[in-house]
Amino acid sequence: MPQRMARRGNEPPVLLVRWYDVSKWLLERVDSFPKSQRFIFGQRIADRTLNVLEVLVEAAYSPRKVDLLARANRDIEVLRWLVRMATDRKLLTPRQYEYCCMSLNECGRMVGGWAKPVRPCCAQGPPGSPACSSSRRAGEEEGPGMASSCQAKGAAGPLSINGQDSPSIADG
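Now predict its structure.
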């Protein structure tokens, strides 16, 4: 069951708190990269990490969450590949890589869960109806990169993270 991003009072969203912790951990790892890699490769990881933090803060207080959450999801996906490359270059240990992938997957699922209830076409009507802005209409075949409906864009949709597609230790 996806965690809701409902807040009480001035509490920040759970995802924002979790991403803050992931950011601290990633930035500490980047600080330990050799100097030659820290300014070339580590900077990209640090920048993406902080970009996601900024986007999540903005999404927490913005009425246009869908676009912001899609951007956060794309940045998390890029981070997966950068972290994989860092591991291949021996900048992260396999254990650090495993922890990082688990954290990125968790946050990616939370982004997808947060985005799911705010997708505009889901509120307008069922997929295939004239009210739904989904490009796919009822009865059409689902292509390799298409989600079957707005309601089905949970674990396999474009705004969520599919653990099978993400790098794993076995890939190394």
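The longest helix spans residues 35-60.
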